Every structure is written in structure tokens, then in C-alpha cells.
Amino acid sequence: MSKNISRFLAATAALAVLSSGPFVTFHTLTLQAQQRPAISSHAAREAAIVAATTAVLEETSKIRELPILQPVKSGAQSRAQIENMLVKNLYEQMTTAEMHATEVAYHKFGLAPATFEYRPFIIKLLLEQIAGYYDPVTREFYLADWLELETQKPVMAHELTHALQDQHFNLRRFQKWPHGDSDAQLAAHSLIEGDATLAMMVYMAKNPLVALAFTRSLNTGVSTEQFNQAPRALRESLIFPYLQGSQWATSVYKRDGFAGLSKAFTNLPLSTEQILHPEKYFANERPLKLTLPDLSNLLNKAAASNESSGVSQRSPLSAQYSALSTSSSWHRIDSDVNGEWGYYLLLDQFLNSPAESRRAAAGWAGDRYDVYEGAEPGQAMIAQISAWDTEADAREFFDAYVKRTELRYPNSKLLTDSKHSASDTLKSWQTNEGQVVMELRGVRVIVVEGLSQQVDANNFFKVLRS
Question: pLDDT tens digit string along 90-107?
């Protein structure tokens, strides 16, 4: 699930870029502070960075075939300065409510434990991994001051490619990406990071001694504690723009050179499907835009009817919420797109079979999911609708998601009564987190997780199909 990963990248990939090569994950870039040889003074280090910036920018400009339109201011920043920047950018890109919605979605999809807290974890993760960043607002480049300058010139090439991108294509337009399509946003950031990673690869090929020093530095004193503790979906989505993005950028480069990548900043990739399958980008295979009706009123009416009949669903732990109005307890807290990459992550979290999960996620044509939260702690529901290229693709995804559901809820009970048949196109389970109902209709698949057993699933699905 790429949920809010792309929003997070909007705050960091262009502003505080996590540099990486295609042969290493981004977390291998940091060095322990004590391994940097002492520099006589802060002024001397700043002067060294300025000189290196000028030289690397000139070479990167030739590699990337983008003229330098203006000098790039550069310098070093401490951990405290970089942490302040990360916190500031995170809050500028995501509200507290959006961070909460991210946590709810991660929990409900089964991608993170109930104790996972998005904001504090992401800050710690980034501070552990960051090597340098380019800020398109101030148009300045900064290198972490605990890193040895001579071993980090490939990082500089990566970041200064962003400076050139910004001068020619305006990276600031990616900072305020409209909410509601994280998949498209992740694809756009895969262009930005894939392009910069490819330029860095060429720079290293042209400077083998620099590349050797950089490679050696990767194996010395690397801290990966936070990265290793991150939920898998978060880890893999954070490196997606660098790894899959560089593979996509290489495909574009082989076909049309760097000129093709420059044109891509006008003709943006629109989905992670296009990143994973470059031929679909070249064919301009656009994703379908799907919508879901707001189900809040339906959920609240069912809850009100249940309470009026004298049956309370509230647990003793939620007695503190008894004064709340049932009519406003359920509300939609988020709406977004999983995309092919997001569905791969959702499936493989439980299938643990990458090849099978990739096949089932391929053939994606579009989707939409909504997250709802109730009044009780931990009460949540997710409704999804997805479209597929063919009925065979839809069937393959449906069958894979059925398998995922059975692994996700091992103690679930398959419902086979008149309302919920165990047919090949309709499946329903009762779990300890509510009902899970799935329906296959032609090229579309509807999935609801966390539905109260007091809700009539047949009527519920009629509304979803409308």
C-alpha cells in the first residue's frame, strides 16, 4: 500500500532526498559521525562543500544534458538542523488528521502492528538515513555534516540533478499534490528520483575512483535499526522511487535518451503501473478514475437502528464515548488509490510469494478505497473498488485476495447463509475485526473489511455498486 508514502515523499524526496543507487537500498548511505576525519573549522568544511558543489554541478549538467541556469547555494547541516527541517516539512505536507488516517489504514490493512505510530517513526527513520537534500523552495543543497565529503560526491550528483530538474521543470509544483491519488503521486516522484539516480549512476561510471570510495563507505558503520523495524510496506514504498524509478528511467533513456526524461516532466507517468511496466507509459495507458459513495450515513443508520432495538455494540472500554451521538459516530477519514504497487504490497504481506502477488496485481486498471472510523477505539472499516484490464485479470486478483483474507484472518468463519453465499464470485467471512465481504462482477472487484454484522451486506453492496 502506497498510502501517504507518496505524500511523505512530496515532503522529502524533492526537499530532503534519500539518495540511493539501484544496487543498494537507500538506508546504506549513512556513516557514523566519528568516522568523518576532523575538519579544521566549520568555515573550511563549508568552503570545501561549495567548491565540490561547483565542480559536481558542472559535470552533472553535462551528463544530464541540462544547462546550469543559476548557481546552487550549498552547505552542511547538523542532525538537529536536518531534524527540524524534516519535522517542518512533514507537518506542511500532512495534517495531524492525515497522519492518524495513515495509521488507521496501516492497522486495518494488516500492514503494521496496532502500536505503530506514523509520525514519530518516520522522523526517526529519516534522521537515521538522510545523507543530503535539495530544497526547491530556497533552491539550496545541504550535505549532512557527519558525512565525509569525498565519499559523498555521488550523493551530491544525485541531489544536484534535482537542482537542475528544478531550474528547468519547477519541482515546487510537486509539493502541493492534490490529495486522493497517492499512486499517481508516487509515480511522479519515481520520475524525479529515477532520473536523479540514473544521472548518479552515469556520474559514478565516469568517476571510478569516486565510485570506489563511495562503495567502500557504504560498508562501514551503517545504522539500519529504524529501517529494519519499519513495516515492510513502508520500507519498500520508500525505496520504490529510487529502485523501480531508476529502472523505469533507464527504459526511457534507452528509448529516447535524457531528452525523453526531460519530456516526461511534461508528460508525467500517471500510475505505478506505468512505472512497473514502461511500455504502458509509452502507450499512454491511462488509469481509470473510480469513485465510491460516502457510506457514513448508511453505517450510522445501521448503528442507530441497532441501538434503538436495545442491542449495544459498545464495549465496556468505550463507555466514555456513550455521550456521543450515534448519528455522527462513523465518518470517512480518507479516500485514496492503491495502484498496482499498493495491491502488490497488500497481497504479499500475507501471501509471502512475490511472483504470485505481482501476477495478481498486474492487469490493474484503476481503484479507489475509503477508510471509515467509528466512535470506539480501533473501530474502522475499509471499502475498496478496483477495475482490471480483463475478466481473467479480475478473477486472478479476486482469488489472490480471497487467499490473502484467509491468511490475514486465520480464525475467521466463512459465512454460507442466504445472505452470504460461498460462491465463486461472492465471499463473506466473520472475523474478530468485523465482516469481510468480497464480490467479483465482470472486470470489477469490491472488497469491504470491518463491516459490522448488524449491517445488511446485500443492501450495503447495492449502494457500493451504484
Answer: 888 888 899 999 999 999
Residue 413's CB: how many other CB atoms inside 10 A?
Answer: 10
The beta strands (E) that lie in 259-306 are given as none
Task: Indicate whether 288 belongs to any domain.
Answer: no
- Write down the residue that cell numbers 505510530 correspond to: 117
H/E segment holding residue 332: strand 331-336
Residue 20: pLDDT above 70?
no
Place of cell 526517526: 124
- Which residue bears the cell 545504522? 223
Query: Residue 54: exposed, middle, or buried by beta-carbon count in 10 A (0-12, 13-18, 19+)?
Result: middle
pTM of the model: 0.88
β-strand partners of 430: 413, 435
Cα–Cα distance measured from residue 16 to residue 82, given in angstroms and rounded to the nearest whole number: 9
Find the range with the poorest average confidence among 42-51, 215-224, 300-309, 326-335: 215-224
Mark which of 255, 282, 309 sits at the end of a domain: 282
Length of the chain: 466
Do residues 267 and 306 both lie within one domain? no
Q: Take residue 38 and report the three cell numbers written for it.
A: 576532523
Phi, psi of 72 (to 5 degrees): -110, 120
Decide the pairing of beta strands 444-451 and 434-441: antiparallel
**Distance separating alpha carbons of residues 115 and 107, to the nearest angstrom:** 9
Q: Which domain holds residue 385?
A: 296-465
Q: What is the pLDDT of residues 157-176, one digit of tens each?
A: 999 999 999 999 999 999 87
171 and 304 share one domain: no
3-state secondary structure of 432: strand
In this structure, are residues 227 and 27 in contact, taking their beta carbons and an 8 Å threshold?
yes
**C-alpha to C-alpha distance for 426 and 424, rounded to whole angstroms:** 6
Nearest C-alpha neighbor of 193 from the set 237, 232, 239: 239
Query: For position 361, which CATH number holds?
Result: 3.40.1000
Q: Which residue has the higher pLDDT, 342 or 419?
A: 342
The dihedral formed by the CA atoms of 436, 420, 400 and 25, expressed in degrees to the nearest 10: -10
In this structure, the number of other CB atoms found within 10 A of the CB of residue 9 comes to: 30
